[in-house]
Write a structure and sequence with these properties.
Blueprint (H helix, E strand, L loop, with lengths): L6 H5 L8 H6 L1 H4 L6 H8 L2 E5 L5 H11 L3 E5 L24 H12 L4 E5 L5 H7 L5 E4 L4 H13 L4 E7 L2 E7 L56 H4 L3 H19 L7 E6 L4 E4 L9 H4 L11 H5 L9 H7 L10
Parallel strand pairs: 1-2, 1-4, 2-3, 4-5
Antiparallel strand pairs: 5-6, 6-7, 7-8
Helix pairs in contact: 5-10
Length: 336
């Protein structure tokens, strides 16, 4: 399928009006005091890429389509299994054996006929991401692949794309939103976002700007290293509580909608403890040696199979070439 890179048109001010049926469809949303027909029309121009149509991707895509995101690109190479159904509400028993992206597209198109959907029935490898990322406005990582998360961490920085993701297991999960940055190194980019609970840090850049207070620098996933590992293992071995997955999916879709509407968004990284109903803000400290945050020239990464990666045990590490490039490995739990 050919994809037209019409980013200029997407950025133009919304014109025209909603159809009567669309007004009725989005009527409860349009009643919100900070929502308007103009914002709804602007949202209709946006393209969002959802990677992974499982426990996170299904509810997130449902609410994004219901809100009126104009074009959703759905990417997943996996097939629907019977064990998926309790936490992946887009699918029915008759869908077992079908590709998830294709089945999700059919369900979402029936759910909202006023948006456009494209299914990519494959795993999100590097070649596909290089094709898709320049053409979208936001990326949701709902994948179950450690390698995919780390690759998105790199490529979304390279293409200056905002992205959000999550990782869950048992009764605990992590979620994050990382706005786009400017290139040129971690210490002089828009990624220098003050975290809500981050303590003051030593100002190492005082010689660059006198009398200018420098906010703590938020790092990326690779900055986690071994200091703040995510929960090892996955639901295949430890299980997962379905409402927990849905809770984080709602958080991701809400963050995406706020960003696409133009609301000011800070980056965040949260731990959610479901049994305590508690969100704990965490701080990712930027690693001065992180190749991704520094924005330097990175060697080309060799192609690898996301499908193979998604089926390997969580204890396995990303491709060695990727570790050599990034130097630090974030331990990301499998999502499903």
């Amino acid at each position: 399928m050919s994809l037209n890179n019409n980013t200029a048109g997407m950025q133009q001010k919304a014109a025209g009006t909603l159809k009567d049926e669309e007004f009725l469809y989005y009527s409860r949303q349009l009643l919100l005091p900070d929502w308007s027909e103009t914002q709804q029309l602007l949202l209709k121009q946006k393209k969002l890429l959802v990677i992974g149509l499982g426990g996170l991707g299904c509810p997130a895509a449902t609410y994004l389509s219901g809100a009126g995101v104009g074009e959703l690109w759905l990417c997943d190479g996996d097939k629907v299994e019977l064990s998926n159904l309790p936490r992946q509400p887009l699918y029915r028993p008759a869908d077992v054996g079908q590709n998830k992206a294709e089945a999700a597209k059919a369900a979402l198109q029936a759910y909202n006929p006023y948006i456009r959907l494209t299914a990519f029935a494959q795993y999100a490898d590097e070649a596909l991401l290089h094709l898709l990322l320049p053409k979208v406005d936001f990326v949701l990582d709902c994948s179950d692949s450690q390698a995919t998360k780390l690759l998105l961490n790199l490529l979304c920085r390279q293409y200056q794309k905002a992205w959000a993701g999550a990782s869950v297991v048992a009764y605990q999960g992590y979620s994050w939103l990382m706005p786009p940055t400017t290139t040129g190194g971690a210490q002089n980019t828009d990624h220098n976002i003050q975290h809500s609970i981050a303590p003051p840090t030593e100002n190492k850049g005082a010689d660059r700007a006198e009398n200018q207070q420098i906010a703590p620098v938020m790092g990326c996933l690779l900055c986690l290293g071994q200091d703040l590992p995510l929960t090892p293992g996955g639901c295949a071995s430890q299980g997962v509580f379905a409402p927990l997955v849905a809770t984080l999916a709602m958080q991701l879709s809400s963050g995406a909608l706020h960003y696409l509407r133009g609301a000011q968004q800070k980056g965040w990284f949260l731990l959610y403890q479901h049994q305590q109903q508690n969100f704990v803000p965490l701080t990712i400290t930027a690693d001065e040696n992180c190749a991704v945050c520094q924005g330097g020239a990175l060697p080309a990464l060799p192609a690898y199979s996301s499908a193979a990666q998604s089926k390997t045990p969580q204890s396995s590490l990303p491709p060695q070439a990727f570790i050599a490039v990034c130097q630090h490995t974030a331990q990301i739990t499998r999502s499903f």
